[in-house]
Amino acid sequence: MLLLQPIRRLSLLCSKISKMENTVLLEASDENIRYAAELIKQGKTVGIPTETVYGLGADALNPHAVKKIFEAKGRPGDNPLIVHIYDIDTVSLIAHDVPEIFFRLAEKFWPGPLTMIVSKKSIIPYETSGGLDTVGIRMPSHKIMRKLIQLAGPIAAPSANRSGYPSPTSAHHVMCDMNGIIPAVIDGGESRFGVESTVISFDDEKTVRILRPGSVTKQMLEKAAEKVIVDEAILNELDSDRTAPSPGMKYKHYSPEANVVLVEGNFESFCRLAEKYDKESTYCLIFDNDDISKIPCKFMKYGSGSDEQAHLVFSRLREADKLHAETVLVRAPSADGVGLAVYNRLLRASGFEVIRI
Ligand code: AMP
Ligand code: MG
């Protein structure tokens, strides 16, 4: 019998927990990873660390298992799951008519935070693909996730948050959202990147379309593909007459309970704007190098460069709820490179509420 090594049973100060105590938080020992793989093979769900954010994993080929992911998250059934694979040979098992450019990009960016959408084979159930004939595939680099896939087979894993809430970047975040709802979470420390994978599709053999920005940036993709398009829905609200190229674009995303307002402008005008907000219930999310003596509200910092901001952004949005913030005024990050991913998450967290000053 496998010996479990739960780190602790948590009763953490998380907002909005409906049930407590059933979920075990597992330290990342080989035994516990084997135990988690067994759970997945039995059709159960597990919270898993990855290099992007924590995922809620289940057997990608088992429709009953995959349904549990949707139930645990409260995720709309038409929002497809990414399938995580161990090696390149698995691609031909789950996808067909894969363009040559897919393999070029896989060579360059896998294992890593890039998801590519191609035609699915029937082995991938429609429950996994959200009813689509395509599947998003990623080969992760995180060693715990890789070990689990090696033991349990392809794993479908969306971010392990309640649908609509900021993604989890620590095991603690997953426990806050999923305690009592899923059997286990593996603690692999903080996620390295902090934002979800870059999702791309292919318009043709030469053209890559970014559907969700991530840590594999447009500039990086341009080194391997002739043409890279940033889909307009990344920075703009979807027009009601346009079908979402990625179903996730339709839904409320990354939003804490607090009202997020994205503020574009210099620090002085940001501070002048902040003056107008209630001092008790408003938090400013600012850069590390901003002059805190000028800030009229309570504040949190989220780094200075884009990589740091990606690493911290979800954590800070979650902290705002713990602090009972009603409004979070966010200093808009640069939208260059990885910054596009940070900007996109904040834009959606704000429900496209941007003040330009
Ligand atoms: P998450 O599972 O939370 O990381 O989100 C996965 C994102 O990838 C969602 O926005 C999905 O809509 C998108 N996605 C996954 N598979 C596909 C697919 N086959 N076609 C289009 N978008 C996809
Ligand atoms: Mg998600």
Would you kindly provide a written description of the structure presented here, covering whatever features stand out?
It is a single chain. Helix content is 28%, strand content 21%. It has eleven helices and 17 strands. The strands form two sheets. Strands 1, 2, 3, 4, 5, 6, 7, 8, 9, 10, 11 and 12 form a twelve-stranded mixed sheet that branches. Strands 15-14-16-13-17 form a five-stranded parallel sheet, with helices on both faces. α10 packs parallel to α11 (339-349). Residues 1-13 and 15-20 have low confidence and may be disordered. The structure holds adenosine monophosphate and magnesium ion. Magnesium ion is lined by residues 158-159, 167, 196.
Give a brief rundown of this model.
Helix content is 28%, strand content 21%.
The separation of the N and C termini measures: 62 Å
Total strand segments: 17
Shape: globular
- What is the chain-wise order of helices and strands? EHEEHEHEHEHEHEHEEEHEEHEEHEHE
Largest sheet: 12 strands, mixed
pLDDT < 50 stretches:
1-13, 15-20
Q: What class do helices, strands and sheet pairing give? A: alpha/beta
- Mean pLDDT comes to 93
What is the share of helical residues? 25-40%
What's the alpha carbon Rg, rounded to whole Å? 20 Å
Tell me the strand percentage band. Answer: 15-25%
What ligands does this structure carry? adenosine monophosphate, magnesium ion
Number of helices: 11
